[in-house]
Amino acid sequence: VVASTHNVPAADYEASDRWDQNPVYRRRSIEAFDRCASILVLLEEFRDWFPARLRERVSVVPNPVAALGPVADADQAEARKVILGVGRLTAVKRFDLLLSAWRRIAHAHPGWSGEIVGVGPEEASLRQQIDAAGAGFPARLRGVTADVARFYESAAILCHPAAYEGFGLVVGEALAQGVPVVGFADCPGVNMLVRDGENGLLVPPGSDRAANLAEALGRLLGDPSLRTRLAAAAPASVARFAPSIVYDQWEEILRRTAGSV
């Protein structure tokens, strides 16, 4: 048996504010690890969560990442005027911070808009936040889609203010498609994909996250050359997660595991 875990282990297997916490699931999952020949995690730092007796069975295999649509050239990228958020509308994704930050600076950037793609339990609260900002506030909830690539194609920036990620798949998808990313420096699963000043911006948490996020977004919106440079570097920054590379890692682990029994 090969176990594949796809979140921050502490968020799945310890008490947390994750939306589907279940004590029976947690207990049985932890017990099951002892019976697995191999355990896969998404990031090297997640290995340390496991007890010493299991760590030799733990291997790191990231998610495969590929562009879902065409990568825009510099002229096309400059025409984009959208700050995009993508993900399930839950508290851990903290899209309320995106809206709070955007509300602080939207007046200084006419022609730009904020769009959030996804559905979830925070939808009503986020909609109230948009309504409270007034009729002229350029932000929309776009609901669920089967074609997220078209939203990446229209975006100049992906803003992903999540508290944690097992592996920020939408972050990887955006980078692969040439969209620079803004996220928080203390967010696991984002800070290993975003290189500050190279393919995006990592925001210091500080005492006022919304203000710090607004400052980072304002910096990017006001500096087209910076956006262009970050966008140009984005696809190559996730090349190591190309499907062919990750599939080979999976195959090597499966062969090694099967050969050990």
Topology:
Elements: E1 2-4, H1 9-13, H2 23-33, E2 38-41, H3 52-55, E3 58-60, H4 74-79, E4 82-86, H5 95-105, E5 113-117, H6 123-132, E6 139-143, H7 149-154, E7 157-160, H8 169-176, E8 181-184, E9 200-203, H9 209-221, H10 224-237, H11 243-259
Parallel strand pairs: 1-2, 2-3, 4-5, 4-7, 5-6, 7-8, 8-9
Helix pairs in contact: 5-6, 5-9
Count of individual helical segments? 11
Task: Give the termini distance in whole angstroms.
Answer: 10 Å
Give the overall shape: globular
Please summarize the sheet with the most strands.
Answer: 6 strands, parallel
The SSE order reads EHHEHEHEHEHEHEHEEHHH
Question: Can you give a write-up of this model?
Answer:
- There is one protein chain.
- With 261 residues, this protein is of the alpha/beta class.
- 40% of the residues lie in helices and 14% in strands.
- The protein has helices spanning 9-13, 23-33, 52-55, 74-79, 95-105, 123-132, 149-154, 169-176, 209-221, 224-237, 243-259, and strands at residues 2-4, 38-41, 58-60, 82-86, 113-117, 139-143, 157-160, 181-184, 200-203.
- The strands form two sheets. A six-stranded parallel sheet has the order 6-5-4-7-8-9, sandwiched between helices. Strands 1-2-3 form a three-stranded parallel sheet, with helices on one face.
- Helix 5 (95-105) runs parallel beside helix 6 (123-132) and helix 5 (95-105) crosses helix 9.
- The model has no long low-confidence stretch (mean pLDDT 92).
